[in-house]
Design a protein that fits this description.
By secondary structure, the protein is an alpha/beta fold. It contains 23 helices and 15 strands. It folds into five domains: 66 residues, no CATH class; 74 residues, Signal recognition particle alu RNA binding heterodimer, srp9/1 (2-Layer Sandwich), CATH 3.30.720.210; 168 residues, 3-Layer(aba) Sandwich (Rossmann fold); 71 residues, Helicase, Ruva Protein, domain 3 (Orthogonal Bundle), CATH 1.10.8; 200 residues, Methane Monooxygenase Hydroxylase, Chain G, domain 1. The chain starts with 14 loop residues before the first helix and ends with a helix. The protein binds adenosine-5'-triphosphate (ATP).
Length: 632
């Protein structure tokens, strides 16, 4: 039975009955509390008549409230023009006052009470009295309304819970993208291509008794196109795409995650062939019972429901479940066993050729200028994910629009790239000495990188503050690297020390500007020593005290499993590596001092130098290196 027709667990009285009862209860309470004790009628009399009664000795008591006098008579009498009979009266004392009133009252021995004047505006008074009650009633209604909305939504109604349950399955469409929209990622596309045939013609597969994988886990760094490939698969096969994010299950409502999973699978089975895509699978699929992710009951129930649903496939439904994660290391092993997410597809960051292809996909609708060189853009964006490249194209287009250009040129791409890598340009007031130190520092990095044989070539050097940096030296690898050779890493350490060494040699002191250089160099040297066996003294032993996350690159602390002695030897080897790197940097600077001065002057003048300008300053690297070899 569809959940929208399921009987409600809690019979709910009609809204208006509850509301009416509450209003009546509060109004009666108010009147009960505020009821006056005086029930006898009060007769309004003119002041002259009041004075007459006073002189006649007919007054028993008088209460004065500002200009109003109320009182009782000694006995009921006919007062006023209507000659009404009564004991209580009220009169208004003229505004000019009556100085003789009090002495007269005293002389007649009338009991006198005096109070501050009563508020004139009775309506206002009533409102003030009612205000707390109005607030309480409004709050009460709000609470009741909220509870009713989520309850009356039930498992399929129109309330928030209903909306939450149906949110993912309502307007489900067949995606209008195909594998042509996914650039690169050929291995991943190959892995999922065979499923297209199954989704298109499930009966053929069934007739042959072929078992098709049910669950596919897409793993890879953020922005590599996991969602994109899942949507493209549905688009290619022409099937419905049910998508939900793992974190949505654990959202607001406790106890509905499992229901939502059930609902999602039911809908998909009903409309099969279909694809269910669960993004951020790790937020529900973490190893159970470890306390990781909070040991959340709700999460575990949701996970159990997913496992049960995947087991429950009878083999007749053409439904494929795709999960995506960038934390495969924390997934519950039960999710990964055969019959569940047993096929694993890894999506890598795009290489140089793939980046060109992604650039082409995303610039289809962008009017590009003739000078745009996709190869060059791709070469300048190592480590960019597909999402980063999409963002780059968009940034470049926005910059062109800001300049009111009709086409997006290479300059916009360069500027967009610098913005994404180094941050937005900041306008800082920098003192001339500080600017000079900055130029010395960046020129130091540049010169050292230029003359070291294994360092990446210089791409750009700048002393324009961007993001968090005051200046930057940018190197670009000639080719993509998948492993890092020792020579390259040692040269890298020297480059990192180049800035600080130049400051010391040329200015005579160092500054805090090398903070990031030192931190990065120390981390690199530690990894070389404790993980990659690049220190003779330490040898090939794993002495790391933190672990890097496979896709996110974050460091995670590990329990230490080596002796204090080993830790001390690691520290010593790290210091030695860094010390040697600094010495090498100082030597290079001393050797090319004249060239360094040229570079500093140029940098101070132009603020940013590109590869060609640096080359013009420092001369031909090969002939310089030859000359220095001959000199040795
Ligand atoms: P996350 O792990 O953060 O959820 P994801 O791997 O699911 O990220 P997507 O959402 O699929 O990444 O990709 C983000 C955007 O990047 C997409 O809109 C897509 O346009 C673009 N993109 C990523 N990879 C590619 C690619 N290979 N080809 C074309 N576009 C891509």
């Amino acid at each position: 039975m569809p959940e929208s027709q399921a009987p409600l667990k809690y019979p709910i009285p009609k809204n208006w009955i509850i509301n009416a009862i509450i209003i009546i209860a509060f109004v009666s309470l108010y009147f009960a509390l505020s009821q006056k004790t005086v029930t006898e009628p009060v007769i309004n009399i003119p002041y002259s008549e009041f004075k007459q009664l006073l002189n006649d000795g007919s007054l028993a008591s008088v209460t004065l409230k500002g200009n109003v006098a109320e009182g009782t008579l000694i006995q009921a009498t006919g007062i006023g023009p209507q000659k009404a009979m009564g004991m209580h009266f009220k009169t208004r004392i003229p505004d000019i006052g009556d100085e003789s009133l009090l002495p007269a009252l005293e002389a007649r021995r009338v009991e006198v009470k005096a109070f501050p004047p009563e508020a004139e505006n009775v309506l206002w008074q009533v409102l003030l009295n009612l205000l707390p009650w109005i607030l309480i009633i409004a709050f009460w209604f709000w609470i009741i309304n909220r509870a009713q909305r989520s309850m009356s939504g039930g498992l399929g109604g129109k309330g928030e819970l209903g909306k939450f349950l149906h949110g993912s399955t309502k307007s489900v469409d067949i995606p209008d993208i195909t594998f042509d929209d996914v650039a690169g990622q050929d291995a991943a596309k190959r892995e999922v291509t065979e499923l297209i045939e199954f989704l298109k013609h499930p009966d053929q597969f069934r007739a042959l008794g072929a078992e098709v994988p049910r669950g596919i886990l897409l793993m890879g760094p953020p922005g590599t196109g996991k969602t994109l490939i899942a949507r493209a698969l549905a688009g290619e096969a022409g099937v419905k795409f049910y998508s939900i994010s793992g974190s949505e299950f654990i959202e607001v409502f406790v106890g509905v995650g499992a229901s939502r999973v059930r609902h999602l699978f039911e809908e998909a089975k009903k409309n099969s062939p279909a694809i269910i895509f669960i993004d951020e699978l790790d937020s529900i699929g973490r190893t159970r019972g470890t306390g990781l992710g909070g040991g959340h009951d709700e999460r575990e129930q949701t996970l159990n429901q997913i496992l049960a649903e995947m087991d429950g496939f009878s083999g007749r439904e053409a439904v494929i479940v795709l999960g995506a994660t960038n934390r495969p290391d924390v997934l519950d092993p039960a999710l990964l066993r055969p019959g569940r997410f047993d096929r694993h597809v890894v999506l890598e960051l795009p290489d140089r050729n793939d980046r060109v292809a992604i650039l082409k996909v995303h610039s289809r609708k962008v009017p590009l200028a003739d000078d745009v060189d996709m190869e060059q853009i791709s070469a300048g964006t190592p480590g960019f994910s597909g999402a980063d490249i999409k963002n780059l194209v968009n940034e470049a287009a926005m910059l062109a629009a800001r300049d009111k250009a009709t086409q997006v040129g290479m300059k916009c791409f360069d500027e967009a790239r610098d913005k994404l890598i180094m941050g937005t340009v900041r306008t800082l007031a920098i003192q001339p000495e500080e600017r000079h130190r900055l130029a010395v520092h960046e020129s130091g990095h540049t010169l050292v990188a230029y003359f070291l044989p294994h360092a990446d070539p210089i791409y750009k050097v700048s002393i324009i503050p961007r993001g968090r940096a005051l200046g930057a030296t940018h190197q670009l690898p000639e080719q993509e690297r998948h492993t890092l050779p020792e020579d390259y890493l040692r040269d890298r350490l020297v480059v990192m020390m180049g800035g600080r060494s130049a400051e010391r040699e040329l200015i005579g002191s160092v500054s805090s500007g090398a903070d990031d250089d030192i931190a990065q160099a120390t981390a690199l040297a530690r990894a070389m020593v404790s993980r990659w066996g690049m220190s003779k003294e330490i040898g090939p032993v794993d002495l790391r005290d933190s672990d890097e996350h496979p896709f996110l690159g974050r460091e995670m602390a590990l329990p230490r499993h080596f002796s204090e002695n080993s830790a001390m030897s690691v520290d010593k080897a790290v210091k030695e590596l860094l010390g040697n790197a600094e010495k090498q940097a100082i030597d290079l600077i001393a050797k090319h001092r004249q060239l360094l001065d040229n570079l500093i002057n140029e940098l101070e003048e132009h603020e940013t130098l590109d590869q060609e300008q640096v080359k013009a300053c420092l001369g031909d690297k090969v002939s310089q290196l030859k000359a220095s070899h001959q000199a040795q």
